[in-house]
Amino acid sequence: INPQQYAEKIINIIKECSKEFEIKNIQYIESGERFEVGLLREEMTGYGKYVVKVDRSIYDGVILDTGPGKEGVSTIERDFVKSLDEDSRIKLFIKLPDWYVIETPAGNYTPDWAIIVETMENGQKREKVYFVVETKGTNNPDELRPEEQFKIQSAKKRFKLAKEPRFIAPVKDFESFEKAW
Question: How do the residues of the chain divide into helix, strand and coil, expressed in percent and rounded to 5?
């Protein structure tokens, strides 16, 4: 009935299938490139309602994403940060800066968090277990938009190559993250 609309829908389906094919077949290789820790020490300016004061980070506060929560701030991130900061097993966490990107066929992707956890295994402390975590409103990737699914699938393949830090996504809340340790 409407050839233009039909063509647009077919084009979108082809683009989505192409991205899915690229992600299923993507392979990352170790380039030896590293980020300097000093890049994470950029001075943080005041963002008022978007900042949560914390003790277990390299900064005194963490800037939250905007979202449908209180005062336009992501309540998922706010609750996650508070739980991280209150748990003595969390040795350090940072909100990853925008310039930290993983290139994927679906576009650049920046996970939310890098976290160092101390756990007990067989009566021994295991220190400095690194995680890169992506907080979302669900633990089920099928509930995310296709573009988010593609980016997370690509990131999982990237971190599988590196073995550490370990990548966990999506994560609904602190309890879900804790179960993934």
Answer: 40, 25, 35
Block residue for tokens 């030896």: 32
Q: Average pLDDT in the 29-35 region?
A: 77
What is the residue type of 35? F
Q: How confident is the model at residue 72 (pLDDT cuts 50, 70, 90)?
A: low
- Cα torsion through 117, 65, 145, 10, rounded to 10: -140
Query: pTM for the full model?
Result: 0.70
73-86: per-residue pLDDT in tens?
678 888 999 999 99
Please state, in angstroms and as integers, the Cα–Cα distance from residue 165 to each residue in 57, 78, 89, 130, following that order: 17, 23, 17, 5
CB half-sphere exposure, 165, CA atoms < 13 A: 19
Question: Measuring CA to CA, which residue among 23, 32, 35 is closest to residue 157?
Answer: 23
Task: Read off the amino acid at residue 144.
Answer: L
Structure token digits, residue 92: 């350090």
> What is the C-alpha separation between 12 and 82, in angstroms, rounded?
40
Q: What gap in Å lies between CA 75 and CA 125, rounded to an integer?
A: 32
